[in-house]
Every structure is written in structure tokens, then in C-alpha cells.
Amino acid sequence: MNSFSFKIPQEIICGVDSIEKLPGLLAKQGLKKAMVISGPHLNKMGVVAKITDILAQAGLAFDSFTETEANPSVETVDKATKAFANSGADCIIALGGGSPMDVAKAVGVLAKFGGSIGDYEGADKVPGAIVPLIAIPTTAGTGSEVTAFAVITDRSRNYKLTVFSYELLPAFAVLDPTLVMTTPEKTAAACGIDALVHAIEAYLSKAASPFSDAMAEKALALIGANIRLFVADRTNPEAAAAMLYGSMFAGIAFAWARLGNVHAMAHPLGGYFDVPHGVANAVLLPTVLEFNALADTGRYQTIYDAIKGGAGEAVFTPQTLVAEIGSLTTALGIPQTLAEVGVTAEMIPAMAVDAMKSGNILVNPRATTLIQIEDLYRQAL
Q1: Are strands 61-65 and 11-14 parallel, antiparallel or unpaired?
Q2: Residues 191 and 175 both lie in one domain
Q3: Which pLDDT does position 55 carry in this prediction?
Q4: Distance spanning both ends of the chain, measured CA to CA
Q5: How many domains would you assign to the chain?
Q6: N or C, which terminus of the chain has less Cβ within 10 Å?
Q7: Neighbours of 29 (CB within 10 A)
Q8: Cα–Cα dist 148/170, whole Å
Q9: Measured between alpha carbons, how far is 127 from 123 in angstroms, rounded to an integer?
Q10: Domain edge (last residue) among 135, 158, 180
């Protein structure tokens, strides 16, 4: 068994209408003015106003930055950092899925320590505590509210750079199921599979530990039993809560165990072709699972049983899980090939080089070469 360590440095508040506790969380830290970082869709839907109305009713000052895009860019981070500095805010509220949270984490670094986000690319380059950050997820998928990563697109390189530091962990995460109950069906499906992939890759990772396994197994149980129900009816309160909490547990699992080839390969798909992250993961997952089957130690059946609700097969092989994942993503309406989402073959060599730069390759259960990554892309195409 690997040596391992872990810590739980956050306070996580869960439950219906838990966003009402937001003023108390600010008061607990002596904070006076918040910058809400979110996206245009959530602003248009009135979700941002839900948060700012709560702040206003409590007599708290705030500003908003709602220009975060999918696969957020270095330029957006710079713009948001400038807006934060001009606002005089002393904390950040990240509202949304992974994109607003990634931007908020990056702003928290730059507002405190200066420079460009590229200066902090890699592991453990953030020198200390960032601007106080409260994360409020509005999707059940990324788990970003409990992870130590920020992924930002450097469009000059068609590359998604990753900043990894436990300093990025939000001080508080507020998980309110009512906020995910208006998620569009396609978004719910893609985000739900993203959370499932987080749990699977953390569970299979070479860096897995008893702690991360416990988190991953709970995530698999919650997501496996509820992803179909949630995509079918996002207003189902039990399914919404289960998916939101499952996503959180999966996030904790991969914060400590890392991921694998699926995520290493998904990031270049976002950088070169702007493929939504959850969709990229979903398309790649069956191909990578088949490749990794050579290294399976019996965990594939645990994953399969979680997805099938314990309905184990009389004769199980790794291909049984691969086929089940394909059936699940098909049922959820997710594309099955990279060609369906606009990926073309000529960029595969460049994407493979970028994928090999990811630390996730190193903890993938099967050792992987550049040529094998190229081949996996072609299989998924």
C-alpha cells in the first residue's frame, strides 16, 4: 500500500436553501465586500441575482463579474482580476460550474501575489493563502468547490494550463441542491459524466489511498444510482442532491489521488477544438477503460456494480464495464466519437504532446507512451 496523507481544510455546507447562510460565512471571516464571479448564462437566468439579493438584504456590499466563458482564457482571468482590484472587494464568491470556479481561483492568486496566471503553472507555485474564496456550485459535475486545481486556456498555445496548489481550496463550499435543479438536460448529462469520470479515475489511479478510495466509492454509489434519474428530471430533489454530493465526493477523491489518461487527453480537446470538458471525458472514457483493462485488479467490477445498482454479471470481464459506459452515455444523449464533436485527425500529434505534459499520465493505472496516446485519440475519433 502506498504511503499517503490527507487533510480536510474546508467547511462544506450542504442542504436546500443553504445559500441563505452566505452572510454568516462572510461575517465569520470578517469580510465586508464580495466579488461574485460567474457566467453570462447564470446572470441571464437570475441565479447571480439570487446570491446578490441575499448579500444586499444582509447589508453587505458586492460587485459582480459575469463574463466567464466555457474553457476560460488567460485574458478572462486578467480582466476579472482587474475588475476585482477596481471593486475594492476583500473576498470572492465563485458561482457556477468549473469555469467560474477556475477563474475565481486564478483571480484569488493574482489579486494577492500579482503576475500572470502562467507564472503559477504546475504544482505548488502559489506562495501562500489566496484571497478568501467561497464556492457555490450550480452544476453537479466538476467538484471544483473541493479541488486544488485551476485550469485556464492559454489561447496563444491552444493549451490548457493547470495550476495545482492546496492554497486554491475555497475556505467554504455551499452545496444547495436547488441551484442545480434548473440545469439543462445536455449540461446535466455532460457534467454528471464528468463527475463519474472523476470518481472512476481517482479510484483506478496509482496514487489512490484508503482515504481517496472511500470518497470515490461513495461518489460512485451516489452518481451511479442517480445520474439517469437526474438527467431525466432535474427537478427531482433527491436525485439533484445525490448528484451534487456525489460530485463533491468525487472532487475530494481526485484532489488527493489525481486522475488519469481521460483527463490528460480531454484538456487538449478543449484547447484545440473547444470541446466541452464533460463531453470530452465521456467520449474518451470507454476507449481509455479498454486500454487500462490490462492493469485492472478487480476494481472494474466495483465500478460496474455501482453503475448497475449492484446487478453483477455472472461472468464479468473489463469489456462488460466498457460496454456499460457506452450504453450509459448513449442513453444520456452524449456523442460517442470525437468526430461527432468536430475533432479532426491532423491535430492528434500536437494534442498527444500536450496530453503527455499532464501529471495525470503518471498516475494512470497503465503506463502510457506518446504513441499510445496518439492511438487512443484515433480510436476515439
Answers
A1: unpaired
A2: no
A3: 96
A4: 37
A5: 2
A6: N
A7: 13
A8: 9
A9: 11
A10: 180
CB 338 within 8 A of CB 376: no
Quick: pLDDT tens for 227-255. 999 999 999 999 999 999 999 999 999 99
Give the C-alpha separation, 284 to 338, whole Å: 8
CA atoms within 13 A on the CB side of 222: 24
**Are both 135 and 203 inside the same structural domain?**
no
Same domain, yes or no: 166 and 260: no
Q: What CATH number is associated with residue 304?
A: 1.20.1090.10
pTM greater than 0.85 (yes/no) = yes
| Rounded (10°) angle between helices 299-308 and 185-204 | 150
> What does the DSSP assignment read for 328-370?
HHHHTT--SSSGGGT--GGGHHHHHHHHHTSTHHHHSSS---H
- Domain with 196 in it: 185-380
- Please indicate, yes or no, if residue 6 is contained in any of the structural domains: no
Strands across the sheet with 159-164, in order? 122-123, 159-164, 149-154
CB atoms within 10 A of CB 375: 15
According to the model, what pLDDT value does residue 312 have? 58
Chain centre distance of CA 264 = 13
Q: Within the chain, which residues score under 50 in pLDDT? A: none
Same-domain check for residues 150 and 18: yes
Identify whether residues 217 and 357 lie together within a single domain.
yes
Q: Distance between CA 188 and CA 250 in Å, rounded?
A: 16
- The amino acid occupying position 157 is R
The rounded Cα 74 to chain-centroid distance in angstroms is: 18
Residues, the chain: 381
Give the closest residue to 80 by CA, choosing from 53, 113, 110.
Answer: 110
329 lies in the same domain as 245? yes
Contact by Cβ (8 Å): 147, 94: no
Of 153, 180, 207, the last residue of a domain is 180
Q: CA 207, 210, 215, 216 torsion: positive or negative?
A: positive
101 lies in the same domain as 204: no
Q: Hey, is 66 helix, strand or coil? A: coil
